[in-house]
Amino acid sequence: MGGAAYVRWGRTVCPSGQGTELVYSGRAGGSRYSHQGGGANHLCMPDDPEHLQYTSGVQGYSPIYGVEYLPSSSQPLQTVNSHNVPCAVCHVTTRATLLMIPAKVNCPTNWTTEYTGYLMTEYYGPDHHRSTFECVDKDPESIAGLN
């Protein structure tokens, strides 16, 4: 299978008409902001997980928590403030390379825009820890009933 894959943060669908297909949709997950240790990256957790092995009571050593939008009060995305973040894993069949360019709205010549959005990461503060920067869709969806 050729092509490339990426996560579209903030949406449950992939862009249409660009040789892009949905692999799966889910919700963003990651380490708890106030916990030391755990992963620094965000994960697009499928809505229908499969467990290789599950033993009640022993999954708490590095738990994965849901991720919420928490934009600054003067920033866009206020309509989804404190809502959980959906995600879509997309497969691009017509291109072999993907690149997220921070602080740019337009792609270089001969590149294709998959989606545009806002650069977001973990909140800055004494009880928060490092995480990766993600491009969150400029027209976000949220997961109903979980805010």
Automatic annotation (TrEMBL):
It comes from the Eukaryota. Keywords: Collagen. GO terms for cellular component: collagen trimer; extracellular space. InterPro entries: Ca-dependent_lectin. This is Short-chain collagen C4. PANTHER family: PULMONARY SURFACTANT-ASSOCIATED PROTEIN A, SHORT-CHAIN COLLAGEN C4-LIKE.
